[in-house]
Each structure stands twice: as structure tokens, then as C-alpha cells.
Amino acid sequence: MTTEALEAWLSVATATGLVLPPGEMQPDNDGGFRITTTLAVAGLSVGILIVLAHDFPKDAPLVLVQDSQLLGRLPHVFRNAGVVCYSTSEGLLLNRQQPETVLTWAVKETIRTLEEGLGTSQVAEFMRELEVYWRQLGGPEVVNFYNPSSEARTLTSYSAKDNLRWLAGAEQEMPPRHRAGNKLLTTIKEKATYLPLLPGTAFIPPAPNEPFWTIDQLRELVKPTLMAIPSKRRRQLFKSGRDWNGLLVLAVPLVGHKSHVTLLGIAYTSLKGVHPLGERGSAFDLKPVQLLRWERSYLLPRGGGKMSLTPKKVLVIGCGAIGGHLAHELSQTGILYLTLVDGDRLSIENMHRHALGMAGVGEYKAIALRDELQRKYLYAEVTAIAKPIEQALDAGEIQPESFDLVIAATGEATLERYLNERLRAIAGAPPVIYSWLEPYGIGGHALLTRPHQAGCLECLYTSPNPDAPLSNRALFAAPDQQFSLALSGCGSLHTPYASLDASQTATLAARLAVEALTSSQPESPLWSWKGSDRELKAAGFKVGPRYKLTEETLRRDAMRYIAPNCPVCAFDSNTNAATNHE
Amino acid sequence: MANVQTQFDTFHSDKKTGIRLGRFKKEKQLRDKRNVIRRRLKANLPGVFAKYGEPNLVPKFKDQGSYKMNTGIKPLAGGSGYDIDQGVYFETPKDGEGAYSPLTLKKRVEEALNGLTDTIRIRRPCVTVFYKENGVEEAYHVDLAIYSARGSNSDGKDYLAVGRVGDSLSEQEWKVSDPAGLQHELFRRFEDDTHGRQQFRRIMRFMKRWKDVNFSSAGNGAPRGIGLTLNAHYGFTPTYSDWLNRTRDDLGALRKLVDDMLSRFSHQYREKRQEWGRCLIAKLPVEPVSDVYENMTLVQMTSFETKLKDLKAALDAAHEESDPHEACKGLQKVFGSDFPVPAKSDTARKAAAGAASSGLSG
Ligand SMILES: [Mg+2]
Ligand SMILES: [Zn+2]
């Protein structure tokens, strides 16, 4: 904005009563502007400073309250500089073409925010942003792994070397790397008390420039909550004796949310060794503690994961280009229990199209992928079996029936047809997804199969024409074409496809997996994604008839692959499902 | 189960022996004739109307029938020959003041074409221009369907002039008719299904050829082509041996259609003939929503059903037969000598390959 435009805005704002005179405008050293003026807020005159950055209106203007008496006493006005939090920056669209409207909006929002803060909703406003105000109090950080519940209970607080501290209810709640079995951690345990406050509990949090709560203030605050707990239970929770140090965790229901809470940490020191929430004792030292929300019930949904998926166990057979991307996708949806099977090591030629990249080269893919996933995803519990699947099955190392889902992405058609037959014969076998991709970016596929339901991998190899060459009917490329290139002798065949193709196929398979695991997909569909045939044709290969179908037709055809004369599923399925001849 | 799709493909599409009437080859001759007729009518009609002291009516033309729908087949030698159907629309009301009787309007058309060929005949539903070829008197023909156009009628509908010379006024009729609407109804369900639409057309052509081979063309002995088309409309479902790749299974589709037609034969009242009897109905899905088989006698209906049963038996036998040679010999009996029969040696089973390229990766 130009000086003239700003002056024009200020004189209009003054004339219309948006701001009170006198108003003053000055350029600052950074090429921006500062406007000093006064607002009429609920009968008070509040001096403010509006700061416009040099690139305004790329960002909303900063508004600061100049009146020290109001500082820190109002919700949304922050102690450090009096910054008024009049709007969230997330999801905001500013009218860049008309910057003066942005200024007017900022001033109006500031007035509204201050008026609400001065009004009857003051406490409610503080409660809404409780976590922000608590953070301003500072104090040591403790990682929370406890999934908040509605019952008061005792937790354990752990301290390890490097000042690492965390909090959990049970061993299983903690990520694998924090558990007792991890030799890297030498831990000291302390008692912690978790207390969910009654819904409707409201208070103004301590201001950063004031003394923290006293024991009486704290007791007053939690009194109604404590009264609602049976006295016998109270005595168990707040036993006296040998309780010199500890941690209190107050779970404050978030206004307007059923299950969300704000966690406030308070460290206590008790001179007499009694619990601060017991009835006795008055010599306590209370200090604020910052709880870091690392618990799974908070983190997994934040990442877009589905909590219903977290207990699911998935067996991934094949940790190549598809399997590597797929295992990542599954972890990111919140599936924590993965078992990876692959007997091969990652070769340097596949470095670029494998999710592990150089980190996995030379390593067993299953093991390197397990380590990568456990490093990346706090809660991932990954088992690696670095041997061929048939060996692992023969040795009884894998019980397919103990999984909720099996996904095979080995790229070995013969092996997978064998697996299809073998897995379907196992009593209590889970659904199996087979996923594969085609060369030159022409497409990829994922097939969900269920034991005792018509539709299996063998259906795709069951041709109506006995003279047709053996091939997978879902393929977009014409059958029986030799795509692999011997780049360096026949020992190292290379099939041309890119990481993007593998990851798109993995995404398709992962979506199908989520549908299968959440029961939103009761059928056994074949899903395919279709890419461009440009590269395939340029390389001198042909597409088959299926490639010419539209995406919509492919979607509609999802169940049309079932072969009524399939030698595997036609007899073991107990439903008389859809056949080719509807 | 033998695979005879190759033979159905040849029977349908082979350039020499296939039954499909290409829209751009043999029909060029018909289209040329049609264009000559269009020009002739435009040139001569003003004079004809003037001669009778009638206001001039400028005709509008629309293709219709199997040519328009692309379901035409080549005629059998000695049959009625190739034809093309042409709609001729006049802005004149079907009734009220100044209305023509159907026959009078057809006579004006006939007169305007006078001398174009040796034979021009007014038939009940049309005015037909016959052409000679290689000494055959009526080798092919153009059927002109004459309409009172919707713009001139208070109900906004097109009416077909029905009546031939010698019909009394009460025997003549302006009959509501909507060939474009019919075509829309027939093909609507295949709007985004190329494979289904193509198979629908193939199956209609097979049924028409079956009719030509198995019925004498005289009179109403044979079910009308439009009737078979409607039976297919109600009884056809796209059928593939491999849905994923839309691998055609015309034998399967025919079996389903014929089964469907046979299952619809029943004892019912026939409005037009005012009789009860066992029959198949082919109801127009557009106005006048009549049964296009309404003129067939019960004796003809019985013969129709018997021949359909023979067709079913032949199709079923071909389905059961494992040798394509034998299967096609049976099919040739119902579809005629244009249906190809592969030599025995062509059909020996190839030994299955022990391995092929999988074409996939993981
Ligand atoms: Mg005709
Ligand atoms: Zn199957």
C-alpha cells in the first residue's frame, strides 16, 4: 500500500468512527508502516498499534494493545507484546486486490475480540485457548503417551538420560522405543496423577507475570471434581506418605468438544510427603509443566489416520517398489502392526524406485523397511521376516489366520497364483489383496479376494478361450509381450517402470486395504488405474482391449472379473456370486 | 465348448461374405439414388401442386429405418433386394381445412417422380421407387415414407400417410409415427457402451438374416425386421466371454435373446385381429405403441415359434459342441450358407504353452 492510500484509509476510518482521533502513520525501517490510533472498546479507549509489513497484504496486519493495564488480562491479548489474536491465520483468504478492506476487517475483528474479552464471555474465551495460555507459563516439557480417559487414575512418569521425560498409563501405550525392553533407556519411575476435570469447569489461567497457583487455589479449582469421586477411591488415588515429588495432569474438557481435552501439567514438591490433592498438608511447591501431546489418540487422527485401523494386523508379502511405498502408506493411515516378508536384498539398480532409496541398498528389504518405518512412525510395530514367503509359511513362522489382511505385491505371477490357492485353503484365512503394476506407466492393479467368496487371483488367469495364451486378463498391455530389458546380461533383467507408477499402485492397494479393514468394502473388487500408453507404444509394444475402456467402465467392471469356471474359487466359494453371464 | 466367435465375426463383417450392409460401400449406390429422388422431388413438386391448384409444399428429408440405425443387412439372392428408407416431410396438417387425404399426398409424390424409373408403386406405408440391375427387374428400391410434419399438427406429432390406390377414405390413415424417437429409445442404453451397442447391432443383423433364410419373403409370413429389432430391444443383454476385455460372445448373446423371445410366447388377446391365441408381441416403445406383429396370423405365429425353437436347438448344440467345425455346420443350417464352417484341420487344439511373459511387476 502507498502512503497516500494508507492516509486515505486512516482519514476515512477516523471520519466514520472506526478509529478515534488522533491517528498517526509512520513508515518503519523495513519498508512497512506503523499506525498508532485508538479504539473505542466497550466504553474504554484502547490505544493500539497496527503494524503492516512491507509486503502487506500478503499477511494480515499485526495489532498490538498499547495500554499496559489491559495486557495479559484479556483473552486473546498476549502478554509478551500485547499482540491481539483477532483471527486464526489458518484457512484465511485475504483480499489482496483491496488492501484497505483487509485493514478495516482487522480493526473490526480487533474491536470484536477485545469486546468479547471484556464482556461476560471472558472466562469462556480463556478456556477456549487454554492450551495457548498454559504454554506461555513455560516450565519443563514432559511427553504424554497416555490416551486421556474420563476416569481419574494413577499414571507413571518416566525420566531417562538427556532429560527425556514421558508419561504413560501402561507399557503398551508407549511407542516401542520407549518401552522397558529398549536397552538404550535407563529410566527412573515416578508417580503421576491424572484428573479429568468436570465438564463445565472454567477458570482464568495464571498470567505469566504473576505467581503460579497456590495449593489453595488449585484445591478450590478441583474441588467439585474431587467431590464427584467416591471417597474410597479418592483415598486410593491421593494416599499420603512418601509422596515428595510428582506430577499432576489436569484434563480440561475443551469447550464445544465431546472427547477433546486440554492437558495441563503441574509438578509438585511436598515437604511432608503427602499428595497435594489429599486433604492434609499445606506446604507444597507447584510449578507449571508443559505436556507434549504425543499420545496415539491425539496424534493418529491428526495425521488423517483412522483409530479403528490401529489394532489391525497386516501381512505384507513382497517389499519391492510397490511393497515399500505400500508399507509407508499403511503406516500413515494408522495401521501400526505390520509384518513384512521378503527374502531379497535391495539392489542398487532399484534404488530410485524403492521407497528406501540408498538407505536400503544391499540390505534385506524387509529388515531395512522395518527399521525405516519404526524410525519414521513413532507407533509402528513392524516385524520383518527376511526369507521367501513359502519358506516362512512352511516353517510356521507366519500364521496367516492371525492377520486381518494379507497384501501380496511380489511381482511374481506364478508365486502369487500359488499363494492364492494356498492361502484360500487355510481355515480362518483373512482377505488377501494382490497388487501389481505394468511397465511404461500404463497402469496398475489391486484385487481384493476373500475366502469362501467367488472372485480370486486365479479368475484373472482363467480364460474363456482354451487356446488363448496364459495371461492376466486385467492387464492393459496386450498379453505375452517381453518387456524386461537385459541391461547388463541376463542375470539382471530390468522391467521399465517408474517410482511414480509403483507409488500410484501402492496408493490404490492401500485405499483398497483401508476399505477392506474398515468393512466399507464387503465385495471382492478389482481396481485398476490407467496411465498413458504413449511410452509403451513408443517402445514398440501394444495395448490390449481392456486399455481402451473408459475409467468409468473400469470402475463399473470391478466385479466382472469373476470366472464361473475358475478352478480355485468356483468350488470353495459358498455364495453363488455374480458370474460372467449375469 | 467350441469357440466360434471368429466365424460369427466373419459371418457379420467379412468384406465379401459378411451380412453387414456397410453404410459407405454398396449403399453408395442407394444414397446416390436417394439424392436423385430428393432433387427430383424439389424440382417437380411445385409444378405438380400448381397443376392441381394447390399451394406449394416444400419437402424436408430424413433418413430412417435400418440405414439410419446402421442395422441393415445384405439381401439374399432372389429376395426383395437392397433398400433404403427415406422420410419425406410436408408442412401440411393431417386434418382440418385444406388437409390432404394420405393417398392424395402420396399420389402427388408419385406424380413428381413419374418417369424416373420403370416401376414406381404406391404401397400402404410408402411410395416405392424400384431400380433394375443386371436384368433383374426390382433389384433394389428406395422406400419413401410420406409424413404430415409435426409443425402443422396441433398435437405436435408427425403422421405417416398410410393407404394404397383403391383404398377407400376410411381405409386410409394418418398414422402417428416417430422413427427418430424409436431409434433414440433403442440405443439410449448404449450411450456410453460402445461394445454393447456394437453387439446389439450384430445380433439384430443375425436375427434378420435368420429370418431371410428361414421364411419366404411373401406377405406377412415372416416376422417384420422391425419386430425382431424390438424383440432384441427387450431381450438382448451384452454378453462377453471375458468382460474385462469385452471379448465378444455373440453365440451366448443370441442364445440369451432367443431364450428370452421363446419365454415371451404366450396365450393372449390380439387387439387388432380380435382373437385369442399363442403369440409373441413386439410392442413399439414410442407412439403408436402398437404391436408390429399384429398382422401375423396365428398360423404364422406358430411357424415363427417353431422356427425359433429350431434356432434355439442349433445355438444350444453349437454351445455344447467341442469341435468348431461341427458347431459351425449346425449354425450354417439356421443362418444359411454365408455362415462359414472352418476346415477340420484349422480347429485342432494347439498345445498349451508352458510359459509366457507375465507382463507385471511388484
Ligand atoms: Mg424398407
Ligand atoms: Zn477364482
TrEMBL record, chain A:
UniProt GO molecular function: hydrolase activity; nucleotidyltransferase activity
Keywords, ordered alphabetically: Hydrolase, Nucleotidyltransferase, Transferase
Domain Prokaryotic E2 family B: 40-136
Pfam families: Prok-E2_B (PF14461), ThiF (PF00899)
Keyword Hydrolase assigned: yes
Superkingdom per UniProt: Bacteria
InterPro entries: Prok-E2_B_dom (IPR032701), ThiF/MoeB/HesA (IPR045886), ThiF_NAD_FAD-bd (IPR000594), Ubiquitin-activating_enz (IPR035985)
Keyword Nucleotidyltransferase: yes
Domain THIF-type NAD/FAD binding fold, residue spans: 308-467
Name of the protein in its database record: ThiF family adenylyltransferase
Natural source organism: Hymenobacter nitidus
From TrEMBL, chain B:
Domain of life: Bacteria
Keyword field: Antiviral defense, ATP-binding, Magnesium, Metal-binding, Nucleotide metabolism, Nucleotide-binding, Nucleotidyltransferase, Transferase
InterPro entries: DncV-like_NTFase
Limits of the Cyclic GMP-AMP synthase DncV-like nucleotidyltransferase domain: 59-147
The keyword Metal-binding is assigned to this record: yes
Reaction(s) the record says it catalyses: GTP + ATP = 3',3'-cGAMP + 2 diphosphate
Pfam families per the UniProt record, alphabetical: DncV-like_NTFase (PF21654)
Keyword presence, Transferase: yes
Name of the protein in question: Cyclic GMP-AMP synthase
Species assigned in the record: Hymenobacter nitidus
